[in-house]
């Protein structure tokens, strides 16, 4: 007898790729660069609350950072300038290495923009409220037992 994970329940249809995505996101992190994720309240009535991702990218210029959105995956990559050969470090505590940080976004999330200031890259996201739609599905009769019941 095989054991089903919670995402393999017969009541969860169409979520087969979600477990693979969760595994990929969990394994793909080495801790650099450090980041924060915060929930920001709506700025004015009628606006949605936002989510803000802040990455500490000291030493990177805007042209050395790439922010892309492919389907529901937000990827932030940094490629530092090549090191000069004439620099000799007595202590090197500031990491300036290549990085890639990926975030899996829920369906409908939108990226509002990205800004780099004082060594922090800020990416703002919003999820517009989905419109609730209840759709009634028509039932058609296919077998003779239903037709007999209709005639009576």
TrEMBL record:
The keyword Chloroplast does not apply. This is Hsp20 family protein. InterPro entries: A-crystallin/Hsp20_dom, ACD_IbpA/B, HSP20-like_chaperone. It comes from Methylopila henanensis. Belongs to the small heat shock protein (HSP20) family. Residues 26-142 form the SHSP domain. The keyword Lipoprotein does not apply. The lineage of its organism: Bacteria, Pseudomonadati, Pseudomonadota, Alphaproteobacteria, Hyphomicrobiales. Keywords: Stress response.
């Amino acid at each position: 007898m095989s054991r089903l994970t919670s995402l393999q329940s017969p009541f969860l249809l169409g979520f087969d790729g979600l477990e693979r995505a969760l595994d990929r996101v969990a394994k793909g992190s080495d801790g650099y660069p450090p980041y924060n994720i915060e929930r920001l309240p709506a700025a004015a009535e009628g606006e949605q609350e936002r989510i803000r991702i802040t990455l500490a990218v000291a030493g990177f210029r805007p042209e050395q950072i790439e922010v892309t959105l492919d389907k529901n995956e937000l990827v932030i990559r940094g490629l530092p300038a090549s090191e000069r050969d004439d620099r000799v470090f007595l202590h090197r505590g500031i990491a300036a290495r290549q990085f890639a940080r990926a975030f899996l976004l829920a369906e409908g999330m939108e990226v509002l923009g990205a800004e780099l200031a004082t060594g922090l890259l800020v990416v703002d996201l919003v999820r517009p409220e989905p419109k609730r739609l209840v759709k009634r599905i028509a039932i058609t009769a296919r077998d003779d037992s239903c037709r007999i019941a209709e005639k009576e």
